[in-house]
Amino acid sequence: MKLTGKWIATSALIIGLAGLAGCSPSATEPKAASNDAPADQSLELIEIIARPAGESATGVARPAHPADAVELAIRTKGTTKGADLAVKMIALADGSTVDTDKLRLNAGNAAAPRFQFEPRGTWPTGRYLFEVMLDGKLAGSQELEIFPADDVAPSP
Questions:
Q1: Closest-CA residue to 38 (of 82, 102, 76)
Q2: Could you say which residues form the signal peptide (predicted)?
């Protein structure tokens, strides 16, 4: 009787698993496209660089000064058919928003979008935070310090 009970339980388990395997799509069947999935799920930010505008992307950038335009260079990985990228420049001294900008990404501009922030007069010296939002969600941030104009980088 013991042997029969084990045999019945094992047989039932094998039949149940075989039935489940028959219900799932095979590896050769194409998966139906889902309209619920966001079109931009494969796009991600991999680098954010804040520097004085016009500085080389390679090497060490010179310090930013109050009269400098500031460039934010972003590198992404993946593709998109359309995503919203927004940047907020925040003065860390008081938490105020200094400037904002936004860009609609597509397949042509998604790899290396750039933003340029121009001072209204001059930037106050101090630290600034750039928050980068991708489709309304925080995707990354980068700090930049604005040094007084009389602080000159040492000559080689």
A1: 82
A2: 1-27
Please state, for a pLDDT cut of 90, what percent of the chain lies above it: 44
Q: How would residue 13 be classed by pLDDT, with cut points 50, 70 and 90?
A: very low
What are the C-alpha distances in Å from 148 to residues 9, 17, 95, 152? Answer: 80, 72, 20, 9
Dihedral sign of CA atoms 85, 86, 91, 94 in order: negative
Map out the domains of the chain with their CATH numbers.
Answer: 44-55+62-146 (2.60.40.1930)
- Say if pTM beats, i.e. exceeds, 0.90: no
Q: Distances in Å between the alpha carbon of 79 and those of 57, 73, 112? A: 22, 17, 12
Cα–Cα distance measured from residue 153 to residue 41, given in angstroms and rounded to the nearest whole number? 42
Q: Which residues pair with 88 in a beta bridge?
A: 100, 131
